[in-house]
From TrEMBL:
Keywords: Hydrolase. SUPFAM superfamilies: Nudix. It comes from the Bacteria. This is GDP-mannose pyrophosphatase. Pfam families: NUDIX. It catalyses: GDP-alpha-D-mannose + H2O = alpha-D-mannose 1-phosphate + GMP + 2 H(+).
């Protein structure tokens, strides 16, 4: 099968834009040659997620009510990184804002597209270790609950479907894989 783009764009029009996203409708010729439309969401920020693990093998989880899904959600600390800025610096800022944690060691462990059928949102997940507790500094729109849970308990929450946030699921499963398959191990880096 060819890896070349089978979609042809014949036109586009902006539908909506705000400081975080834009929605565009494209007029297209689909892979079998029929005309149609395809709408996409462009994210103006990268997503950064942090799996922060302390010396007792606890991870930081943030609880908050998520407006789009109308549910309370437990997640690893995460947030936005303006395009063109350093994702690691954004991850450090988000970890401090949401939990009050500073980390001595950082390693990028995963990149993923969060919903690639409708958006271009890219997430970068970091492992943070060597933690020091300071004061959390949440944004005004963030009503957050912070707790530490044993890593294996967080893994069970993922496997039971109680943690459903995609960045959190990927981060926790990736760390489990890194621990189970040492040949996949990543070195701490300041990328």
């Amino acid at each position: 099968m060819s890896k070349e783009n089978p979609w042809k764009k014949t036109g586009s029009r902006p539908i909506f834009e705000n400081p975080w996203i834009s929605l565009t409708e494209f007029q297209i010729i689909n892979p079998v040659g029929n005309p149609g439309t395809y709408s996409t969401i462009h994210f103006k920020n990268l997503a950064v997620g942090i799996i922060a693990i302390d010396d007792a093998d606890n991870i930081a989880l943030i609880g908050q009510y998520r407006f789009p899904i109308e549910q309370y959600s437990w997640e690893v600390p995460a947030g936005g990184c303006p395009v063109g800025t350093d994702p690691l610096e954004s991850a450090k800022r988000e970890l401090l804002e949401e939990t009050g944690l500073l980390a001595e060691n950082w390693a990028e462990i995963q990149r993923l597209h969060l919903s690639n059928s409708v958006s271009d949102e890219l997430a970068i997940i970091y492992l943070a270790e060597g933690l020091t507790q300071k004061e959390a500094q949440p944004e005004e729109t963030e009503l957050l609950e912070y707790k530490k849970v044993p890593f294996e308990e967080a893994l069970k929450l993922v496997l039971n479907g109680e943690i459903t946030d995609s960045i959190s699921v990927a981060a926790i499963l990736k760390v489990k894989c890194l621990r189970t398959l040492p040949s996949l191990n990543v070195e701490a880096t300041d990328r």
